[in-house]
Amino acid sequence: MTQHIRFSSLTLLVFAAAATADPPPPNWPTFRGPSARGIADGRPPPTTWDVEKGVNIRWKTPVPGLGYSSPVIWGDRLFITTAVRSEGESRVKVGLYGDIAPLDEPIEHSWRVICLDRNTGKVLWQQDAHKGVPKVKRHPKSSHANSTPATDGRRVVAFFGSEGLYCYDMEGKLRWKKDFGLLDSGYYVVPDAQWGFGSSPVMHDGKVIVQCDVQQNSFLAAFDAADGREIWRTPRDEVPTWSTPTVHVEAGRAQVICNGFKRIAGYDLATGREIWKLRGGGDIPVPTPVVADGLIYITNAHGMMAPVYAIRTSAEGTLSVKEGKKGRQHVAWWSDRRGNYMQTPLAVGGLLYCCMDSGVLTVLDAKTGDQKYRERLSAGSGFTASAVAAGGRLYFTSEVGDVFVLKAGPGYELLNRNSLGEVCMATPAVVDGVLYFRTQGHVIAIGEQARAD
To answer: Which of 43, 76, 180, 202 lies 20 to 30 Å (CA to CA) from residue 267?
Structure first.
């Protein structure tokens, strides 16, 4: 009896210690974090920093080459990708312009996966996934490493378009790779305008999902994360897009949601079967689908339209936005002139934040589509990186590296404007109150610093 009492007391102490221990920090495993929401839980990051003076700068690590993929994080490890030229530096042209001519770089590149220590910025390992001359040209505002990697805590996958899909373990050992041949992404109206591949892989429930909307033979596919075995592949009647798919699970229904021009659609995660589809919108789809409170938000732009669609997660069949037409019941609301071209919107606190690449921010009621406010963040600066949210604060990053910190809510309230000091085209990651920005030359960790007494 005494032994039993002692064991019980010890057990209670163990449980008490576990209850009071700090929980492990959340992860940011894919583009825009968990479920592509762009929202971080936990304590908020700072609203003020100074890169030059080191104020609220945890660390700053230089990164070789050019890549606009975002950081992803699992535990204490942060992963990015880049493309390094064998000679010279890659040129980049930011800003608001309409030049569609691509850059041809017939120079050997190294497509690289880099792992950093999340706490210190130290490079833990880096691997050259592929070396060679790029198979496609890129947009002057793009790179040859646009796709954000993804991780499930056991593996990390990196997609380099025509240069292949690669899977590493967490220590940097190559587990498998896939060559899909030429993946030519460019303006379908002008096929010679090759702009580079942009869709990022997604990992879910032991599967790697890739969306490959290209000039010919577009498809959506799922692969076994352990060995790369193809599980299913579904053809898509689609022009080139640069959108990352979203996986959403609700009431036993798991679907892969894809943006598109000819085929906005949801697919069964287990089989790849198309569940629902909607045609129409902007003809250069880039933003990732976002899901919140039973609605799927799809936005795209270019050409004749810049719509926002709010589609019910229970949708089935062929959808329509026309009143009285079969399929309209699956579309809660839509707007034809408030959509984003480049940025994925934020759905947080019952509001939908849509920032155009011109820096004009439109905030809508997420349930009805009614406009709450419309405000210009900055005149003359382009905006490509998607916004993120944490602790009631929103972070919008311009291409020149100015970060606008807003208070979440139905009215416009600018809390601060900070500079990263470099071009920034990548969406930041947010974990445990720290922002991780990928600029043109660095990864920068921004978090509150303890004050010296």
So the answer is: 180
